[in-house]
UniProtKB/TrEMBL annotation:
Catalytic activity field: Hydrolyzes the link between N-acetylmuramoyl residues and L-amino acid residues in certain cell-wall glycopeptides
PANTHER family: N-ACETYLMURAMOYL-L-ALANINE AMIDASE AMID
One Pfam family from the record: Amidase_2
Enzyme class, spelled out: hydrolase
Similarity annotation: Belongs to the N-acetylmuramoyl-L-alanine amidase 2 family.
Protein known as: N-acetylmuramoyl-L-alanine amidase
Source organism phylogeny: Bacteria, Pseudomonadati, Pseudomonadota, Gammaproteobacteria, Pseudomonadales
SMART domains: Ami_2 (SM00644)
Location of the N-acetylmuramoyl-L-alanine amidase domain: 38-185
TM annotation in the entry: none
């Protein structure tokens, strides 16, 4: 107690003014090793370091997934959704392998919303699933099971609330590393998550409007690329087809071809409409001299 009083007097002396509105009461002081921290004055300008949630599948079975994600010196994730989640007091159990404030190594070379190296700004969530074969378009094992999806929804809901994560900032690994990564794949139930309030999803009515419009006057490839970039995708100058493919895995799972059909374009512009405003969508669609798509 005596020590605090001494520090308090010292702080008051330093400010040279006892009528300052800085709160220098003892409650704001924490004694550290060799110094004292005061939290009497706090800044307004701030946000969370964690801005994005990145979803993955492990492409391994439960035992291999756990072994790799805990023992490997190359890869990790903040969370793991097991193949068959255990229960505790009637609730499903997720594994936290890396604390939120630590960087896990899950994203690799990546871009989203003009940021790169997303390990710095995201949390990685791995789900045990064998994945899919891009050649055949088929699942390699079982689909994501009900318990995994329920657990994932509860976990992501909690993280979204805690870190104020935007719907468009909940992404798949393939979204941030198109062409290099294909998880969580076109069998991942993004729509189901959206129905539970997790992540972005376009409105059907808006899609219908754009379908009608684009069947008469489809957008150019440049306009589509601009819209993809506005939504958050990177790498459009390098491999636009792979970016389209990633977008389709996320939002148009019946057509993962890398080719922009009318429906893919309608979904994309509906998303711009919903999350970036109708004006933004209209601005991108202003007539240009570029030849229209197919
Ligand atoms: Zn991944």
């Amino acid at each position: 107690m005596k020590k605090y009083t001494t520090v308090l007097s010292l702080l008051l002396a330093m400010t040279g003014c006892t009528s300052s509105n800085q709160d220098t009461s003892e409650a704001t002081l924490t004694e550290k090793e060799g110094y004292v921290l005061s939290k009497g004055e706090r800044a307004v300008a701030k946000n969370h370091r964690i801005r994005f949630l990145v979803l993955h599948y492990t492409a391994l079975d439960q035992a291999q997934s756990f072994e790799t994600l805990t023992r490997s010196e190359l890869v990790s994730a903040n969370y793991l959704i097991p193949d068959r989640p255990k229960t505790y007091k009637g609730l499903l159990v997720a594994d936290q392998l890396v604390d939120d404030h630590d960087r896990s190594w899950h994203a690799g070379v990546s871009q989203w919303k003009n940021r790169s190296n997303l390990n710095d700004t995201s949390l990685g969530i791995e789900i045990v699933n064998a994945g899919w074969d891009q050649g055949t378009g088929q699942l390699l094992g079982e689909p994501y099971n009900e318990q995994q999806i329920e657990l994932l929804i509860s976990l992501t809901r909690d993280l979204v609330r805690k870190y104020d994560i935007e719907p468009t900032d909940i992404v798949g690994h393939s979204d941030i590393a198109p062409g290099r990564k294909i998880d969580p794949g076109p069998f991942f139930p993004w729509k189901r998550l959206a129905e539970a309030g997790i992540g972005a999803w376009p409105d059907e009515g808006t899609i219908d409007n754009y379908l009608a419009r684009f069947s008469v006057s489809p957008p150019s490839m440049i306009q589509v690329a601009k819209a993809l970039q506005t939504y958050g995708y990177g790498y459009l100058d390098q491999q636009p087809e792979r970016v389209v493919e990633a977008f389709q895995m996320r939002f148009n799972q019946e057509n993962v071809s890398g080719i922009v059909d009318i429906r893919t374009a309608a979904i994309l512009f509906s998303l711009i409409d919903k999350y970036h405003g109708k004006d933004k969508a209209s601005a991108i669609l202003l007539p240009s001299e570029v030849a229209a798509l197919g």
